[in-house]
Amino acid sequence: MCKELEDVKVVCFDLDETLYDQLEPFSLALQSENITIESSLIEPVFKKVRFYSDLLWKSYTNGKIDLDELRTERLIRSCNDFNLDLSKEKASLIQTAYEEQQNSIKPFSGVKSLIINLQKNNKLVGIITNGPVEHQLNKISALELHLLIPRNKIFISDEIGIAKPDKRIFQFVQEQLAVDSHQCCYIGDNWENDIAAPIEAGWKTIWFNYRNRDSETCHSPNKVIEDYKNFMI
């Protein structure tokens, strides 16, 4: 265990790309809509989708676009970056297929045992995620994580009215859980949302960097992991 994490009482996880692999349902959605992309390009296209999703999220939270526009536009822009022409109608069909595939998602290996072990060691375990309430809860249910993490420890941006990377969402959570910031640790994959933002809020962080991304700022996570095997706080 990292010595800097010894006083941690609360461990919160990001959801998408941290507790399960979004690439698999994305790839299956493309196949179901007969989108032909070289296998070597599927992950790069998916990374672009994540990039544009984060970029457009700010416009969504500011009320400039709605959720459907965000979801179709991120697909169109990502495909355009790889010279793939995608209509708005086709993007909408891919998004629908993607959501259907998310009903069958599975957690990363080791996630459930990690949560159980954390709780056995008297850690409060929660989830902090951006997104629509029902949509995020459906994914948590598909992962069967609602059986491990109580609803009052699941914090969803659209329900709270604050979204990552606004550090106030982390401050809100610590207030709800009645702990100090230095007693909180966040585990996530996205640098801006899951590393820089909680650090700015005074939290400790663990970067789940299984896609081998580069750091984006001078912020320094307390630990970097690529999987959950033999990992414990």
Report a brief summary of the structure:
This protein is an alpha/beta fold and 233 residues long.
Chain-wise SSE layout:
Layout: E1 10-13, H1 23-32, H2 39-61, H3 67-80, H4 88-101, H5 111-120, E2 124-129, H6 133-142, E3 154-156, H7 157-160, H8 168-176, E4 184-188, H9 191-200, E5 204-208, E6 223-225
Parallel strand pairs: 1-2, 1-4, 2-3, 4-5, 5-6
Description:
The chain is an alpha/beta fold and 233 residues long. The chain has two domains: 3-21 and 107-225, HAD superfamily/HAD-like (Rossmann fold, 3-Layer(aba) Sandwich), CATH 3.40.50; 23-104, Orthogonal Bundle (DNA polymerase, domain 1). It contains nine helices and six strands, in the order βαααααβαβααβαββ. Strands 3-2-1-4-5-6 form a six-stranded parallel beta sheet. Strand 4, helix 9 (191-200) and strand 5 form a beta-alpha-beta unit. Helix 3 packs across helix 4 (88-101). The model has no long low-confidence stretch (mean pLDDT 94).
Q: Would you count the extended β strands for me?
A: 6
Strand content: 5-15%
Question: Count of helices?
Answer: 9
Q: Which CATH architecture of the largest domain?
A: 3-Layer(aba) Sandwich
Instruction: Provide the structure class.
Output: alpha/beta
What is the total number of structural domains? 2
Lateral strand order in the biggest sheet: 3-2-1-4-5-6
SSE succession: EHHHHHEHEHHEHEE
Low-confidence stretches: none
Largest sheet: 6 strands, parallel
